Amino acid sequence: MIRKIFFGLLFxxxxxxxQAPPKPFGVLPTKRQLVWHETEMYCIIHFGxxxxxxxxxxxxxxxxxxxxxxxxxxxxxxxxxxxxxxxGVVIVAKHHDGxxxxxxxxxxxxxxxxxxxxxxxxMVKEYQLACARLGMKMGLYCSPWDRNxxxxxxxxxxKTYRAQLKELYTGYGSLFMSWHDGANGGDGYYGGTRDTxxxxxxxxxxxxxxxxxxxxxxxGAAIFGDVGPDVRWVGNEEGHAGTTCWATYTPQAxxxxxxxxxxxxxxxxxxEGTWNGQYWLPAECDVPLRPGWFYHTSQDEQVKSPYxxxxxxxxxxxxxxDLDLGLAPNREGRLDQHDVDALKGFGDLLKEIFSVNLxxxxxxxxxxxxxxxxxxxxxxxxVDKDRYSYWSTDDSVSRPQLSIDLGKPTTFNVIRLRENIxxxxxxxxxxxxxxxxxxxxxxGTATSIGANRLIRLQQNVTASKLRLSVTDxxxxxxxxxxxxxxxxxHLVAPTITRDKEGVVSVGTISPVASIHYTLDGSEPGLKSxxxxxxxxxxxxxxxxxxxxxxxxxxxxxxxxxLGLSKGGWKVxxxxxxxxxxxxNAIDDDGRTVWSTLQRDSALEGRFPQEISIDMGKVxxxxxxxxxxxxxxxxxxxxxxxxxxISDDGVSWKVAAExxxxxxxxxPLEQVVALSRxxxxxxxxxxxxxxxxxxxxVVAEVGVR
Length: 704
Ligand code: FUL
What we know:
Blueprint (H helix, E strand, L loop, with lengths): L1 H18 L11 H9 L1 E5 L3 H5 L20 H10 L4 E7 L28 H12 L2 E6 L12 H17 L5 E3 L6 E2 L8 E2 L9 H11 L4 E4 L5 E3 L14 E2 L13 H10 L6 E2 L2 E6 L17 H10 L6 E6 L9 H18 L8 E4 L7 H4 L13 E2 L8 E19 L7 E10 L2 E9 L5 E21 L4 E8 L9 E4 L4 E5 L6 E5 L16 E2 L4 E8 L9 E5 L7 E2 L22 E2 L13 E20 L9 E9 L6 E7 L10 E21 L6 E7 L1
Helix pairs in contact: 4-5, 4-10, 6-7, 9-10
The chain binds beta-L-fucopyranose (FUL).
């Protein structure tokens, strides 16, 4: 009898033990981080003096009177974001130029000094009301760097900055994000001194105190910064995380001072995170819908298309990160139609792809279920739409298999997996096989699952039986979701390239019925010229091309803006024995560079450094272009320039000068438009300052 009771107790306690949830693995997300993961996609909205000056960073000396968004419509902007499937918006309440778009008491440099609504307007309030009306979340970004404030660099400014945050975080409802940019210190207006203010970004702002204040005022807001504390910057402004991307992170280079001389390491570090890292610090992928963060008419043709946005979605949200897409209202205070259409097209695509999970009615058979308790931990949890219910295995089983019987041949091209991240990021790698033509065939693999993992297949797969194998994990698993989706097949937009001699080629990766193109800026249709072979376009211009199929379906449009052809151009510098390859700056190949970086990093660079070009004949020039290095390294990137022109290559006249703002984080081709066209045969690009390194690196210079 005693024996029976004893064994009975043992049996009961064994079951209870087996049914206890798995122990958490590694560090865990906080409640606010879980909410942030669930948000997945939001927008960041830049509007301010730069919208009117056509810049990316204001100097701080702009007159608030230039800001007058006569048709400002927060609902139009927030509504367009919502149509794109975004769940929230982060409003830039103050950018580096210092102009506050709410009526702050902390500085005179604010919206009340603009003619908009006779100085009675409050843009942040209007966004708050629009968000409430449309069921969107709101977050705020108030730039710590302030190129207007006379006290920037001293402790007094930090007090002002905190007072600004206090106004914002108490006056505009509850916020889902507190966004803090990493660009800090440098030259600026600073109340008229027009000098350079260097700060130590690790100590100057007293972030611990500021974050403490934010936690008190907005406990639900996830704080974004270069390295957290809640969300990390992914390390690029291109909108993608690494193909492996861990939500956990052990930063090796937490601040400028300790940053490795080679910017490359840092780039990859944040992009990938750290397996079983020290902090739960997931990545945000920020990227503007247009090339720049602020509105520029010249970029109207460069709005990312729905399929380009979809690519970014797979590369960010599909890798467990969040996507933060930059929107730029125009001078009227509205989103341009190009942007509205792109957002709507993207939102429609997401709905089309992800509203039906083709694995919904499947029969799942797992090689192991925790404590054999299917009701709690069985694979049925994978399709119950609860992000946190999960299939789990016994503590000793970290490499289980799952068979999926779809019941009938099913065609799909996207696989979705999610872990219950409340128990940590546990799975390291998976393989998915399909039973096709009588044999098992691997159709997809992935490392890092986390909050969300999308595996986009190259081809449609049709199968009724699948197999998922967890091939590596840090502990028994807690997989919460298995989804299969079908992205519609579409024609891929053509590519447009031009060679050194100015000859344009249009290509596709697969055959299509026809490609049509235009040179007048209009959208190509079936009546536009058929592309029949390469054609010369030495004078540059806008080329648009589109692929068509026999059934009437068409691709998206590809647009390429080309400058004057560089055929016949010569570099004038002929310095004997100098290693640097000047010619790479005018070879129309963005991958090759003219570099003067010196191997010995102890050597200092001397500036300016210059390159002069003889175009061979007099040309009419409307703009200069500079393409910085495109290899993800930052040394040698120019951020201050002078462009000169000359009739004889001997005496030079300044045609344009200024700064390339935000070029370190967003190294796009820079287009410097002249106030009026000039005729010139010679031009000189003079680099006055670089973002780092002891020389200059130039991928291309050109003219339009
Ligand atoms: C950057 C800023 O310097 C840009 O101007 C922009 O605001 C972007 C979102 O963050 O670091």
